[in-house]
Task: structure prediction
Amino acid sequence: MERTGAGVRSAVAEFDLRRLGAGRTLVFCALIYSAAAFAVAPWDYLALAKVYLHHFGFFVPALALPLLVAAPFLDRRRPFSGMVELMRRSAGPLATFIVLSILFLAGFTTFKLNIPHLVPFYADPMLATLDEWIHAGPPWARLHAIDPGWFTTLTELVYMTLWFFQWFAVALFAAFNWHDRRHQRYLWALALTIIIVGTVLATAFSSVGPVFYGDFFDDGRFAGLTSLLDQKNSLVPYYSGYLLENFRNGTPALGTGISAMPSVHVAVATLNALYLSSFGRWQGVVGWTFALLILLCSVYTGWHYALDGYLSMLVVGVIWRRTRFLAGRPVQALSSISQSSG
Result:
């Protein structure tokens, strides 16, 4: 029995070393990405880091409070000691997550602001034509044709508000549970999604999307869409005006930068759907319903071509599959075996 216990404890130690290596490598990659953004546009990066520190320095810890409040209900036999243990175990990963989120988001927005300086916007005519050919007509027109009248309100709630909460709440949950390799896999996949979808591919397919088409291309192709959005009192023209003004003024501000292909909204929602599916069927149903709704909203509002979302889903699927080596048995399970065998 002692041999068995020693063997399992050895496996736990080996796992901890792998976990430590995965964490350090992820931090290193995030810092390299941030340093590259700083090298591209140092003043933009510093200004954006200050903006995100101001906004997310409070917002992200506030999102963590519900997890702490829920802790006593997770183990009713020792509710308060369980909460203290959760805080002790998760303080380091949470602090690291907050700092890296600020640096990483500053890098992401810096790259996004500078896409047209690296690769001038060029892909929209090609994307718009291909989008209409695949769907036998403009997909946005089909969605507006079947709009029951309340989809504009739903879109603004889901696409412009709930998506942000889902992104950071799910990422925080994974950071709180970093000791489990399933959550490590998610955070790795999230970082790769932002880098590959939000920076590399967004630069390669430099584009603005339907809602900005008329501002960058001498073509009234999407005049019907913008007219419909105005008629339905959508907030899209307000937000697009904010982004366009910051683009023209070269002002680094919260959430700025114009980019369409691929869709980061759809990419993150798809990744979250894959992650939630690993917990059970109903979690997967909720995640995929939200992801498909985000895809529809991205087309309905004109922020994206439908192709933007399709490519995002495809790339994220590949990322999730390629990071499966990070998934494995949770350390708690190994620890419990160790204790029972010792």
Residues 2-341 form one domain. The mean pLDDT is 82.
